Amino acid sequence: MRNVRQEILDTAQNLFKQHGYDGTTFQMIADELGITRAGVVYHFKNKHLILHTIFENYFDLIRSFVRENLTEGFNYYLYYCVFHIYTSAEIIKNENIYRLFYHKDYVDSMEREKLWGVEESYRLITDDFNKDFTKEELRLASIMDRGARFRLFKEFAEGDGILTVEKYGYYRVYLMGVLSRLDEATIEKNIRRAFEFVESHSPPAIPLFE
Known about the structure:
The protein has 210 residues and is mostly helical. The protein folds into two domains: 4-43, Arc Repressor Mutant, subunit A; 55-203. The protein is built from eleven helices and no strands. The two termini are 27 Å apart.
């Protein structure tokens, strides 16, 4: 049986790479698949939901990969270090991809829908290291995380080249350690272990990131 929803995602990935987010329309997706525009809307109400699903499918794949392979000395800060080093590198090493990920529509959707996920990350890390955070402090940590992350990306994209892909990944996860109130030695130890893991384990790939 035809899986139209998956076909829409696959087609949208190709069109986003060819024409960019703004240059891709629902009608273009429909024409590629030989269906009506309403057939696309039935599965995805707007474009940012398509883009959101594409990235979430990738993130879910990496989350599963890290959980299956990161077994020795597991803690949630190490887990998120590995996850963000993988995903940050894959996203920002390709200008076409990071322009999709940091497109205003996608960023706005993340602000509305994903802040709770960042907050949950900090809850898991702080619980793991017996840090006593209130609900308000977790929310503030997640807000500061998102603000600093976007500023870090802007520095990478528009800066003088000092911030490399590897340094971007380092400072991305260093920030999480600081906001979780971990001591410097703990932060550095886990980041070092995370980079060692990434260097020795090749993650799975999906078409958008090949």
